[in-house]
Design a protein that fits this description.
Oligomer: single chain
Radius of gyration: 22 Å
Number of helices: 8
Order of helices and strands: HEHHHEHHHH
CATH superfamily of the largest domain: P-loop containing nucleotide triphosphate hydrolases
Strand order of the largest sheet: 1-2
Low-confidence stretches: none
Family: Belongs to the dynein heavy chain family.
Keywords: Hydrolase
Number of domains: 2
Organism: Triatoma infestans
CATH class of the largest domain: Alpha Beta
Distance between the termini: 32 Å
Structural class: mainly alpha
EC number: 3.6.1.15, 3.6.1.3
Largest sheet: 2 strands, parallel
CATH topology of the largest domain: Rossmann fold
GO molecular function: dynein intermediate chain binding; dynein light intermediate chain binding; ribonucleoside triphosphate phosphatase activity
């Protein structure tokens, strides 16, 4: 219910208020596979069944009708709802951070195909220590407020901290 309420709030902000939103969900935030039903629906069609009650849908339609009319579209209930959903889909950017280790992601991808079909998958593999050190050193070199003598030790510390938390 909390996820459903959060998604309803996100849809209102993105669809009615035309606000860009990034929705981030990690493996640990999926205590129940039913959460993924909502995410699958959101990714595949943009519509999550029964996300809003009838009164809320009516309020959304009435609120967005002037914008629909202003866009030169007939302001029927169906057109207003489609306009709302399309705008929400445009404004909501969904990031799913799921580990590929083990069979969980593979099983979820079979059960909820939009997790794969309606997303772009970026695989991040472990970086070698030298690469972490070089990248951090490069960024630190651009900082004017950091003494040059500290660039190397701080970059080594940053690389170490990155690997330590992994």
């Amino acid at each position: 219910n909390d996820l459903r309420a959060d998604l309803a709030s996100i849809y209102i902000k993105a669809g009615l208020k035309n606000v860009g939103i990034m929705f981030l969900m990690t493996d640990s935030q999926v205590p129940d596979e039913r959460f993924l039903v909502l995410i699958n629906d959101m990714l595949s069609s943009g519509e999550i069944p029964e996300l809003f009650g009838d009164d809320e849908v009516e309020n959304i339609v009435q609120t967005i009708a002037p914008e629909v009319k202003g866009a030169g579209i007939n302001d029927t209930k169906e057109n207003c709802w489609r306009f709302f959903i399309d705008r929400a889909r445009k404004n909501i950017k969904t990031m799913l951070c799921f580990s590929p280790v083990g069979s969980t992601l593979r099983i979820r991808a079979r059960k909820f195909p939009a997790l794969v079909n309606c997303t772009t998958i970026d695989w991040f593999m472990e970086w070698p220590q030298v690469a972490l050190e070089n990248v951090s050193f490069r960024f630190l070199a651009d900082l004017e407020d950091l003494e040059e003598s500290l660039h190397l030790p701080v970059s080594l510390l940053m690389a170490y901290m990155h690997t330590a938390v992994n």
